[in-house]
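note to self — DONT lose this again. spent like an hour looking for the file last time. sequence + predicted structure for the chain T wanted, 671 res
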Amino acid sequence: MNKHIARLTIMAVIVSAASFGHAAGILTPLGSGQAPIQIQDHHVNVVINNGFAQTEVTQTFTNPNAERIEAIYSFPLPKSASLSEVTLTIGEREIHGEVIERKEAERIYEEEKNQGNDAGLANKNEYKTFEFRVSGIEPNSEARIRFVYYQPIEIDSGVGRFVYPLADGGTDELAESFWSVNEKVEGAFSIEVELKTAWPVTSVRTPGYENETSINQIADGHYQARFEQTQGALTRDFVFYYMLRDDLPGRVEMLTYKADAEKPGTFMMILTPGLDLEPLTEGTDYVFTLDVSGSMDQKIHMLTEGVKRAIGQLNPNDRFCVVVFNDNAKMLTRGWTAATPDNVAKTFQVLDGLRANGGTNLFDGLMLGLKQLDADRATNFILVTDAVTNQGELSPKKFHELMKTYDVRFFGFLIGNNANWPLMRVICEGSDGFAREVSTSDDIIGQIALAKSKVGRECLHDAELKISGVKTFNTTDQMIGRVHFGQQLIIFGQYADGGEAALTLKTRQTGEDKTYKTSVQFPDVAVDHPELERLWALSQIEQIELQENIGLTEPAESRSAIVDLGLNYQLVTDHTSMLVLSDDKFENYGVKRLNKERTALEHEAQARRKQNAASNYRVDNQSPMFQRQANHMRHTGGGSGAGAFDPITAMIVALLTGAGVTGARSRKQQG
């Protein structure tokens, strides 16, 4: 396939919700004759403190059966979540978890279960779920499970977003045919969120839960939100939005952890560029490629309404076409259509008649959509799918090769839980793209419109970050590629010794080379954020998995590296599990208490932070990396990643109070 010279922009809305039996809830084999384990209560405590969130879940189970029974709890896997703790309380006995290789953990767990001993096991099911097993709950008795995970919080256009995933989406037929799921909570169900940020917050929102949630402002940048009900169900995502004040500067922030001067340190660097990106005013083409497979049955109306809203916002000098796919792909419109009111109305009628059925041939959908390119016009490609591809080409490597053939701007939106992030990362890496997850509790109409504000503006090209003066290593990809309107960049890495470092971001805007510089101080000792080591290790694992999926790393080599990271930093991965046993059992099996040591450090740091106001981790105060041009931004509606919005974005954000964003990095622009 020849390289297309046309500037192609792809916006992808990837819709993938939790598989049946893979939503939050207790799993029971169909036909087992057992009454399902009951969930007596479910409590969630979230702390968002500057760059990352800590989520603690406590749940009590009761066995209504006349015999001892194993409890299996499934929980949708949050994106980039590092599971750090699992604790079981059975009667007066409390036991804790340690991460070991998966096969060995499963062997020991089964052995302990068969002997009637108390044990637990936490596994990761690919990109879909965490699965927790409790070896046996006695008749009419209860057990309590507690687990903790960390994840980075990213800001898009000045808005932070946290999702507690619960929803089910019905994309796993095998799970549906084997498991029944009990998501009912018999007693209290509560979620409490504490937000602490050094930057002023103008509003906080919990869409869909407004009438049930109390929100209290403790101080500027410090909020507490609490939702509580009785006899609820774990069926609906909880989304927490917060909007920063719109006049904040572009900036560089950095969190670090370095136990002592002799050990390597870990850092999380957050760049909010705050750059002016001009609107694009020329006529543009839009390719809408829609998934109408059977797994979209419950989502087809919502998605077509979102696409209709996007088409309705086009200008008369824009053109569009619509591609649909299930087992195969086909054109829904007759080629390119001018976005006149009459043509838009006719297309709406066709969209209203869409029905979902068949399999998912995502590759063919992409292929047919890409074939519509006109080399003389800029093209936006909007893809709506669940990404659970099961027909046609399935190899991630082939998806990567396809996307590298085109010079594309790719925007990915994954709606719901258990979204296929590994495949999306592959597509983004090949296209120098950008991906965002969207909960089914978000507004897809607003999300597409918000994305349009990015597509309708210039972006920075060939962005590359360099750190010199301090030895850094094992960083996430610093060949960032494109930077879009409102995007925030997050870089994880390690460093040898403290000292002053020069930070340089090289990029290109409107054909002109741009360089942004500052100096930052890496500390010799920093003990406030030991959780960064787990977050860094997970970022390394995700990068290794990406390299394997695009064919640059052999599976055996990837597995070895992931196991090492999982064991050293106590992370549950596809190849490691968290085994929960008593202290004496760990000693009998020769399991070192690495997680016990690690969690003790984390608990100490969390206790210190709890007593203090949020710290400001900006590191470029003396020499700002990004100079703000306030008057120009007020005129154009441009702004920083935490600053002013264009009119469309301001309207959408006012309605939604925000949306999360995940930047994907890849090759430099070609052509």
